[in-house]
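Structural prep section.
Before we set up the soaks we want a predicted structure of the protein with pyruvic acid in place, mainly to decide which crystallisation condition to try first. Input record follows.
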Amino acid sequence: MPPGPSPVFRVALRGGSLLTNPRWNKGTAFTNEERKAFGLTGRLPHRVNTLDDQCDRAYDQLQAHENDLRKNTFLQSMKDQNWVLYYSLISRHLKELMPIIYTPTEADAIANYSHLFRRSEGLYLTFPHEDTMEEDFLEQTRGRDIDLVVCSDAEAILGIGDQGGIGIASAKSTVYTLLAGMDPSNTLSVTLDVGTNNEDLLKDHLYVGWPHERIRGEDYDRFIDKFVQLVRKYFPHSLLHFEDFGVTNAYRLLERYRKHHSVFNDDVQGTGAVTLACIMSAVGVTKSRLVDQRIVVYGAGSAGLGITRQVRDGMVTIDNVSAEEANKRFYLLDKHGLVKQSLGASNIRGDLHEFVRPDDEWSDVEANPNGEITLLQVVKKVQPTVLIGCSTQGGAFTEEIVREMAKHVDRPIILPLSNPSKLHEVKPQDANDWTDGKALLATGSPFPPCKQPGGKEYIVAECNNALIYPGLGFGAVLAQSRTLTDTMIVAGTRRLAALSPALKDPDDALLPDFGDAPEVNLEVAIAVAEQAIEEGSAGVDWKKEEVREKAEAFQWKPIYGTYVYDTDGEQA
Ligand SMILES: NC(=O)C1=CN([C@@H]2O[C@H](COP(=O)(O)OP(=O)(O)OC[C@H]3O[C@@H](n4cnc5c(N)ncnc54)[C@H](O)[C@@H]3O)[C@@H](O)[C@H]2O)C=CC1
Ligand SMILES: CC(=O)C(=O)O
Ligand SMILES: [Mg+2]
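Run finished without errors. Recording the tokens verbatim:
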């Protein structure tokens, strides 16, 4: 984030209260005038540092930690102490530090959340305290104008499953600030603690969440609804972001609330959008149309179905075919292999119904005794042009499967999207080698470039929803849209696809580099807000031409500014 002009802030906090408030703390960067005015002279060592000096020191301290999990813990502590320093440091080393505060390292931090716990960092809403939910909500949000609420019930975190804790909501919220410039004072991370079915957590006396099996059914729905209604009542223009809910709840909650509030499910819609942009870029390289693809999706959960629907909708809008026609291009597999009629209702979730393959299409393929058809069998018969993994099954795209795919298509498009890195369906270098360097690749977590024959390198794009969700959410907040519509998401997706390096050079990456994620997300946000204005869902009365300037002005930047002591000034 480029530094803007230095703003002046009126601040009411003094002394220790100022130094322990992460929003306002400057540490050694308080000037001598500020130290006098705020009672800090005796509380700080002599030298006044610049933010650059502080970043240098913090970076050195970070390097002293021997592994990524410890670095994650160190950065978390820094976030608890000083937001400007934290966000400046990460922005300056974005590509190096994103994998520490997000996937893959955040997965380890979340798995160890209770053991690493130091201090609270958001709103903890726990089922046994349902009666006091409104008081708890107001206590945590008093005096704040919340634009963004990120919530999770922590049932399906990344690919590591039921973990409890606020970690993923907090990490996703941090990424909104880092990549879209959402003011962290106006964001709220929420854990909806309805218990956990993770036996290890239930047995662990250090587990900090509610040690009780997950609440389901009417009790769950009532609890979630109470929370959503509080968000709607107190922050009607906010974006409500759902993260890492179990697949059934993910779809149900999205459908239930999206007509009434600006609601977004990242695993469904964010992943769908970034993957559609990635595939649009790849079909540009293969000089084919979206609708001409045969797409195999391995893992038909939140992400798998979200991608399928988004790419299907892309075929409908871009290639002008009916949804029924486009549905036929997809072959979904889940735990019981290919999703086909004879698996029966007990093995096929209702929301997959549009994509169930007819049995007679597979009469020539020998199913196993349970009637299941494997990925290899599907690849052999379908000869897919695109193979997507969101199954959490590391290594599922074996050499045999990848080589089989490459026999039938010149440039196989292979997207192992499961996170964290150890759960990727195939290592990009392996997929590259098994296809003689022909595969067009993108992954869910960052990987180094693939070494090609002859010493060239192929850059593996990171197809992670963080390349688009901060922009989608920021665009909706900026436009004060009461709903986040499919057409707004498509506008953001098209803007991302237009920025793909492979459009200019087919040997280049399928998506923009994560080092450019702040600029990319700003472009996405502008496209989303413009679309909201155009379709009349915006709550602002700007012209489309004004959006860029408004977006840049709205962004929070990690700069200190000058403080003036004022008892009526900022206190939170
Ligand atoms: N790259 C990105 O931006 C994103 C990546 N993901 C990743 O995708 C993976 C799935 O995430 P969600 O869809 O949210 O989880 P989910 O739990 O909703 O979906 C996983 C699906 O895989 C299926 N599955 C499990 N074992 C299987 C097997 N042996 N064969 C075929 N299918 C199998 C499950 O039944 C389930 O339907 C996770 O690793 C997650 O980190 C999720 C969202 C975004
Ligand atoms: C990236 C993300 O949202 C996930 O892996 O669940
Ligand atoms: Mg997720």
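Observations: The radius of gyration is 24 Å.
Flagged for discussion at group meeting.
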